[in-house]
Amino acid sequence: MIEIKNLHKSYKMGSNSLHVLKGINFSVAEGELVAIMGSSGSGKSTLLNILGMLDVLDEGSYNLDGVPIVDLNETKAAQYRNKFLGFIFQSFNLINYKSAMENVALPLYYQKVARKEREEKSIKYLEQVGLKEWAGHLPSELSGGQKQRVAIARAMAAEPKVLLADEPTGALDSKTSYEVMDLIQKINDAGNTILIVTHEPDIADMCKRIVHLKDGVIVEDKKVDQVRASQYV
Amino acid sequence: MLDIERWQEIFDTIRKNKLRTFLTGLSVASGIFILVILLGFGQGMQNGIAKEFEEDASNRIVIWSEVTTKEYKGLNPGRRIQLRNENFEYVTKRFSDEIEHQTARIHINNVLISYQQESLGYRVQGVSSGHQFIENQFISQGRYVNYEDEKNTAKVVVISNKIKREVFKGGKSPIGEYLDLSGIKFKIIGVYGDRGSEREEERIFMPITTAQKCFNGADRVGNIQFTLKPAATFEQSVLESNKFSKDVKEYLQKVHTVASDDERAIRFFNTLDEAKRYNNLSKNIQLFFWFVGVCTIIAGVVGVGNIMLIVVKERTREIGIRKALGAKPWSIVGMILHEAIFITAISGFSGLIFSMGLLEILGPHIGVDYILNPSVNFNVALTTVFILILAGAIAGFFPAWRAARIHTIDALRHE
Ligand SMILES: Nc1ncnc2c1ncn2[C@@H]1O[C@H](COP(=O)(O)OP(=O)(O)OP(=O)(O)O)[C@@H](O)[C@H]1O
Ligand SMILES: [Mg+2]
Q: Which of A4, B76, B136, B360 is the most exposed place for a label (fewest CB within 10 A)?
């Protein structure tokens, strides 16, 4: 599903540049649930952003579902994102003046799905994350866990090939984190490919594979026995 | 533009950001409102001035003389020029086709006026019968001086309503009473009124011939006055009166040996000149109102641009989110512009309708001098709204374009 070879990325900071990713080779098959770990500043978010086409790579190649991601301009990136990717952010990134349902429906708007169908679909996905009754509420009326579940529903609504989550539980307490992980595991069970950046070992243990980043390279990449989040919920 | 989905998206955004929408709209609507009101009053002013001068239709010309300022034919400057009866008679005869009313007038200085031993402080002037019409006076009682009086140098005077009020207390009729002017008895034959200022009614009139004979006037006149027959249009009247003035001036300069470029020796006062000046003034005022209006519009446009800038900044993160979810840069530009144009259009038209309505309703009731029926050309106002919309779109485009070009990841990081 994802295949990257010899990926490099530097940030220019004035005259000197910061080499963040120093040759990453990495592939993810369909249906995997991968945790990306590493200390702060090791380049986890940078990697995920490049995978999500929110940022561009300096060197190396990137294939997504057999499509080479090259010459990425904003228009093309937007198209690919809409077609292939769903995002879950630490800070939820819901649009504050739109209701839960409207937030979920937004990627469908950019897929040119008709309004009626958008609404039906977003209700369906809100139901899946257990928030059907909250469809008409604004983000400000929801708890952190609920917001993240809305964000997950939104990421799912576009029916992406890959879900990318940057510290999805970073802003949540552990109980709520497990609820969110339970949801993510269920989505993964349904066959979706998911990548999660996290600091927390217990969250990483709920994935099927853990990749360790250190100083811009992968230092460890191992399969793990998945801990089911449902037992804590 | 016909993308119904986008319309719905924009209505949603507008509905949920009422304050922002309201403020943007207000700056546009008030810009249009102020412009229309200003233009309306500019027009009203022009209407009012036109009417004022229509009422005072008399195109009155007053000619008097002072001293020369230029050497001419061996004569030194500083020579006093004196108008005389023959000058008046010549002009009257020669321009009889153009002239409507005429009078020569002389002011009698140092005259002691008394009525039954009570001395009075009024001015005394000798005039012809035409004076009444030239000064737009009306008769309240008796009659004005006439041709017969002039021919007979009759010792008669006409007093004003004000003098009657002040001197003939207790409703006593002044007609037939005698005023004593420096020892000569004058019979009061009429009472006149003047619609102008109070000062205009502080004068006593007698036939000019009497004035010249009784008070050492010889054949001297103070000034000569005419009204011309009105022409079909204002412009034409101005032309004709200018020609009349020019011809009369040439004649007077010739007979009094005055240089043709000596503006001070023989002086003219022409009400049409005044009218023209007012006309120009009102045109300038209108121009000024246009200027202020256009500035208001520019301020409105800058306001819209500013608000758009703030709005876009405020929405940077939202734009990032939308882009992460698959919005293309152009769809972001389109969305923001669409919204800006929509708000500008709606508020521009409301400002237009509101202000035109106000002018329509209040306009006819405005009873101030020099302002009549303020109104505005609908097409002009409509064009202005369209210009404003266009300007708003341009003002909105740049921030929108900039926002759309921010990298998605930077936009998402934006606080
Ligand atoms: N836009 C940027 N410009 C300059 N430097 C950046 C930028 N984004 C990240 N960096 C730098 O790149 C390095 C890696 O950042 P990254 O966000 O990928 O770390 P991370 O592993 O996600 O850390 P954390 O766990 O704290 O989120 C850091 O040193 C960071 O300062
Ligand atoms: Mg990070």
A: B76
Q: Is B181 helix (H, G, I), strand (E, B) or coil?
A: strand
Each residue's pLDDT tens digit, B134-165: 888 999 999 999 999 999 999 999 999 999 99
The end-to-end CA distance of chain B, in Å, is 31
The 3-state DSSP composition of chain B as helix, strand, coil percent (nearest 5) reads 55, 20, 25
Nearest to B325 among A49, A75, A107 (CB): A107
Q: Could you say which residues from 64 to 93 on chain B have a Cβ atom under 8 Å away from some Cβ of chain A?
A: none
**Distances in whole angstroms, Cα of residue B346 to Cα of each of A95, A103, B69, B168, B307:** 26, 27, 66, 69, 16
Check residue B56 and give its pLDDT.
Answer: 52
Query: Domain extents for chain B?
Result: 4-53+278-413, 59-271
The answer to whether B325 contacts A102, with C-beta atoms less than 8 Å apart, is no
Q: Which of A75, A78, A95 sits opposite B321 (nearest CB)?
A: A95
Contact in structure between A90 and A147 (CB atoms under 8 Å)? no
Domains delineated in chain A: 2-93+162-232 (3.40.50.300)
Give the model confidence (pLDDT) of B281-332 as tens digits. 777 887 887 788 778 778 777 877 777 788 788 888 889 999 999 999 888 8
Please give the average per-residue pLDDT across B360-378, as a whole number.
Answer: 76
Closest ligand to Cα A46: 1
List, for residues A15-31, the tens digit of each pLDDT value.
Answer: 888 999 999 999 999 99
Mean per-residue pLDDT of chain B: 86
Q: Tell me, yes or no, if B161 comes closer than 8 A to chain A by beta carbon.
A: no
User: What one-character-per-residue DSSP string does B346-412 give?
Assistant: HHHHHHHHHHHHHHHHHGGG---TT--S----HHHHHHHHHHHHHHHHHHHHHHHHHHHHS-HHHHH
> ipTM of this predicted complex?
0.92
Q: Containing H/E element for B284? A: helix B271-314
